[in-house]
Design goal:
single chain; 277 residues; alpha/beta; 16 strands; 31% strand
Length: 277
């Protein structure tokens, strides 16, 4: 059988077959769901300039809320404060855009979350005691930091950028509860890690928030939501960063792997009212 391998730590690899990514349609019936979460996944172009990206995140969050007034959570991509990697100058560039948490970027975006009265999630390079982490922050409607997840399964690009992985310990498993729904937080290649997948499935995560910086195309079926047996909110970047072409593939999929809303090759907002049985 042909398989698709993606970058992650060699001792902690999940292999997804092409069958998982393209066939076997299943059905998930949420017509009588008792709990709901209204989510917008955002695909955006990222500038190399941090201040421009902070302004864009705030602007797009406002636009998303105007377009979808019922939105309760708005999710942006991995490392949204800059390029995912500057191949010509990787670590110095990441250090130039890295921030502490809390810091100016989280404070600024927290103001927007408070003004809009909704959750905002986004990825950034975190500076912590001189260490760099690929992190994902979730801010609540009061403008408070609700949770921080640090990437456990880092990629070769992360390593070139000087980023270190979070340890495989209990504190690296990030779960929050919104509207009585258990929500797991992961970043990009975390999806390929057996350890983190096992932790989140054993704790019965019902929604996975998944910011990415990915060149993957849009598949017919979402194998990740099947892997976690949970809804997946997949937010990605779009555009060219040096020689890298990010696909913009952004979607919301149910636990059976059906993509309920999404698209590729453009910026956009993708809204769905997730129903959990």
């Amino acid at each position: 059988m042909a398989v698709l391998l993606t970058s992650c730590q060699k001792d902690d690899t999940i292999v997804q077959s092409l069958f998982d990514l393209s066939g076997a349609p299943l059905q998930y019936d949420d017509s009588n769901a008792s709990r709901h979460l209204n989510v917008v996944a955002v695909s955006m172009i990222c500038s190399k300039n941090k201040s421009e990206n902070i302004a864009t995140v705030r602007q797009k969050a406002t636009q998303a809320k105007e377009q979808y007034p019922n939105a309760e959570l708005i999710l942006f991509s991995e490392s949204v404060l800059g390029w995912y990697i500057d191949d010509e100058n990787p670590e110095p560039y990441q250090r130039s855009i890295a921030e502490t948490i809390p810091g100016p970027a989280t404070n600024s975006i927290a103001q927007t979350a408070n003004e809009l009265g909704c959750y905002i999630g986004f990825g950034l390079t975190e500076l912590n005691s001189e260490n760099l982490y690929n992190s994902f922050v979730l801010i609540d409607p009061n403008g408070e930091i609700m949770a921080i997840h640090r990437k456990v399964n880092i990629t070769p690009e992360d390593i070139l950028s000087g980023i270190i992985p979070a340890a495989k310990v209990d504190s690296s498993v990030t779960l929050v509860t919104i509207n009585s729904i258990k929500i797991g937080m992961i970043i990009c290649a975390d999806v390929n890690g057996f350890w983190l997948t096992k932790q989140l499935t054993e704790r019965k995560a019902e929604v996975i928030l998944h910011p990415m910086a990915s060149e993957v195309p849009m598949f017919k079926i979402d194998a990740v939501s099947r892997q976690f047996n949970a809804w997946e909110v997949f937010a990605n970047r779009w555009g060219t960063e040096l020689d890298r072409e990010y696909s913009g593939t952004t979607f919301i999929a149910d636990p059976a792997g059906t993509i309920r809303v999404g698209d590729s090759q453009k910026e956009g907002f993708y809204f769905y009212s997730i129903g959990v049985n």
